[in-house]
Amino acid sequence: MLAWFSWVAQRRCLQEKVIIHENVGEFPLKLLRDAFGDLYLVLEWCSVVLSLCEHGQANDRVRRISILFHKRCIVVDVRHSFPIHWKDFVVEARRTCSFDWTAYFRATEEVEHDREELLAEIAWALDRRSMKGMSDLEKASRCHFVLNSKFDEALNNTELAWRDEYLRQLGAYSVCSLGQDPFARPCSNWGARSLHTIIRKPELMYSHIHHRWLTPQELALVHNLPMAPRDFTFLHFGAETSFSRDREAYNFPPRRRNDLKCQIGNGMGLCCLGIAWSYVWMCLARLQFLQRCAPTSSLLLAAKRLRLNNHCYDQIDFELEEEVGEDLD
Q1: CA triplet 36, 20, 83: central angle to 5 degrees?
Q2: In the chain, how many domains are there?
Q3: In whole angstroms, what separates CA 28 from the centre of its chain?
Q4: CA–CA dist 19, 88 (Å, integer)
Q5: CA-to-CA distance for 171 and 259, rounded, in angstroms?
Q6: What is the pTM of this model?
């Protein structure tokens, strides 16, 4: 709750033109109305539940994105202020995914940067307490398991048993979490073309095809975070992100594995946030045009005329649907 109230206080203090709020799909819109209803438009059609699978990504992540526009941006009737509903814009932005989850397993030993990370993953797994403290009996029992790679050799006996059980249940074309009991709480993509929702600090996401798990940098790529120069070749002039820059050049300590994994699963994939920002830029261009056309309009009078307060949002949404339906032009 402290984080929520701190975020609300910061937004009310800065009063940006637009707020993009992202949370779980079940997040109640009423909380946003109570927090910002006196300053921002908080309408039903400005809040949408998005899934990465519906927008060209091979992984599932369902989040609610709500877009709030400051009332000072509205100089004319709200029906004519936005070129299209946010909900309709999301429908237009849907794309069919043309690849599957295997594309995320992209690290190869031929690339030096990838080879270093693969070796670091194996070293980390072997250094775990469950591996270093293995008894002679446990070591002897490992002969019953098929070890296809160095990654398999770095799994403890429980993980090997759960790996084999997932394989028996789902087949080879699947990704499973070796930190989740396949009997009690299975966690897998169940043979689908897309990955299942990846939670914060995920366990070992193991592929029976590749005989290894997703590395931390590959998990970041699942959330569209570019980690290496080849991940954003579409940018000009060799632009880089903070993830791919040499931390030593900035006197920063090396990025730790657990710190990177903490960033995984925290929020929405960047592609869906990109859709939200595209919609915002389009609406701001429209609003700026309307402001130039009506520079003397009183924003306070406009808000009062539209009765934009905490008690009549539902009525406003109803009136918009009755009068103009889907078309706001």
Answers
A1: 95
A2: 2
A3: 19
A4: 19
A5: 32
A6: 0.76
User: What is the three-class DSSP state of 205?
Assistant: strand
Same domain, 213 and 124: yes
Asked if 146 and 258 sit in the same domain, the reply is yes
Task: Map residue 3 onto helix, strand or coil.
Answer: helix
If residue 117 lies in a helix (H) or strand (E), which one and from where to where?
helix 112-126
The residue segments making up the domain with residue 175 are 102-262
In this structure, the answer to whether residues 52 and 162 fall within a common structural domain is no
Instruction: Report which of residues 156 and 326 the model is more confident about.
Output: 156
* pLDDT tens readout for residues 61-97: 888 999 998 888 776 666 667 788 898 999 998 888 8
- Say if residue 94 is in the same domain as residue 112: no
Longest Cα–Cα distance in the chain = 84
Is 244 within 8 Å of 228 (Cβ atoms)? yes
Spell out the residues 6+ positions from residue 49 whose beta carbon is closer than 8 angstroms to its own: 25, 62, 63, 64
CA neighbor of 222 nearest in space, from 50, 120, 107: 107
Calculate helix-pair angle for 29-36, 2-14, nearest 10 degrees. 50
Cα(206)–Cα(196) distance, rounded to whole angstroms?
12
Q: What is the Cα gyration radius of the chain?
A: 25
Rounded to whole angstroms, the Cα distance separating 277 from 274 reads: 5
Q: Which residues pair with 207 in a beta bridge?
A: 175, 212
Tell me how far apart the alpha carbons of residues 185 and 213 are, in angstroms, rounded to a whole number.
19
Do 67 and 19 meet the contact criterion of CB atoms below 8 Å apart? yes
